[in-house]
Amino acid sequence: MPSRTPQQTTYRRLFTIPGTRAFTAGNLIARLPAGMFSVSAVVMIAGSRGSYALAGAVTATGLAATALAAPWIARLIDRHGQSRTAVPATAVAALGSLTLLLCVHYGAPDWTLFAAYAATATTPNTGGMSRARWAHLLDGDTEALHTANSFEQAADELCFMLGPALAAFLCGTFFPEAGTLVAAVLLVTGILVFTAQRETEPPPSLTPKGSSPLRTPGIPPLIAGFIATGAVFGAMEVVTLAYADAAGHRTAGGAVLALQAAGSCAAGLLYGRLQPRGPAELRLRWCLLAMTTLMPLPLLATHTLNSLPALAIALLLAGMATAPTMITAMTLLQHRTPEGRLNEGMSLAVTGLLLGIACGSATGGWVADHASPTAGFAVPIAAAATALSIGALSKEAP
């Protein structure tokens, strides 16, 4: 496919490429549940069992299981194609979510919650599959790919902005299991629409080139950075929900979290309109520094003002550094991943994020239960500082 000029890398012109609107619509539907499942599970489990520690541990277990399974699912996608692999994998994941719903509803033993949520590990990396399609369509056009990656990150943030609010609304307005039920239906529907768009699907690579991305120079430090960044997200989510619950506004927790995603979404869209300058490694370090600098704002807001509106504003500001960080890190990962292993490489990034979210969720829940929700906001600060340290110490890949 011919390269596009810099003037053609606006978002509007990006979607003049045939087929891009159709696969993006299906992917957005499938991606929205990513922002719903964990919040729905936390609200559902904490409401029925009275423990945020248990809710955080269950979601952490499911995320850890997904982190283990995701690279294998992605490898199958690279070798056999998105449509042949993603549909059956999604069906298994949806059954796991519905099993969790039934276990909570009927008061099954705690261990069944862990087993059911772990069964959702086969959920395909919808964001990774979408980025793989852009990389296939924009082969060789670095600036257009930067814009596409920025849009995809903004889409992630949009789903994590709407998802928690929708989940909290459904669980609080109808019944505690409503968020999980709707999320499962959206996931299956979106994947079916997405995989039906065969004309933009990257061709399968039965014999991928190069070694595993984990053994590729420059990728392991990026994965470590994704783990630390994921801990920021996981801890912030559970601690914010616990703080809102302690303040007597449980259903407002999802809306407050949405503001963090809103700030990140706006920053990501703006970042995508800017022409990338300088080495991506240096840009990533500046983004990590900005994230670490802004992350103490939620702790300051809750400790000094003890106000949910103040926390909402702090999360909006703190979220503005996360999207540029993720966009730059994903761009680096795409450049360093061997040919024919793009889904696997991006899945490893998501695996790192999920591992980090799992650790952050469990740690944040424990601190919120045993100390206070306000003290829990120190966990994302430590995680952001860890990500900065990893980025500062990492050497550039050859």
Structural account:
The longest helix is centred in the middle third of the chain and has 32 residues, at 142-173. With 398 residues, the protein is mostly helical. It is built from 18 helices and no strands. The chain has one domain: Up-down Bundle (Growth Hormone, Chain: A). The protein starts with 10 loop residues before the first helix and ends in a 5-residue tail after the last helix. Residues 1-8 have low confidence and may be disordered.
Please tell me the CATH architecture by its name: Up-down Bundle
In terms of DSSP E residues, the strand content is under 5%
Number of helices: 18
Based on helices, strands and strand pairing, what is the structural class? mainly alpha
CATH fold name:
Growth Hormone, Chain: A
* Order of helix and strand elements from N to C terminus: HHHHHHHHHHHHHHHHHH
Tally of distinct domains: 1
Please outline the major beta sheet.
Answer: none
Give the overall shape: globular
Any idea of the CATH class?
Mainly Alpha
Radius of gyration: 20 Å
> What name goes with the CATH superfamily?
MFS general substrate transporter like domains
> Which residue ranges are poorly predicted, with pLDDT under 50 across at least 5 consecutive positions?
1-8
Helix content: over 70%
Mean pLDDT: 84
Distance between the termini: 27 Å
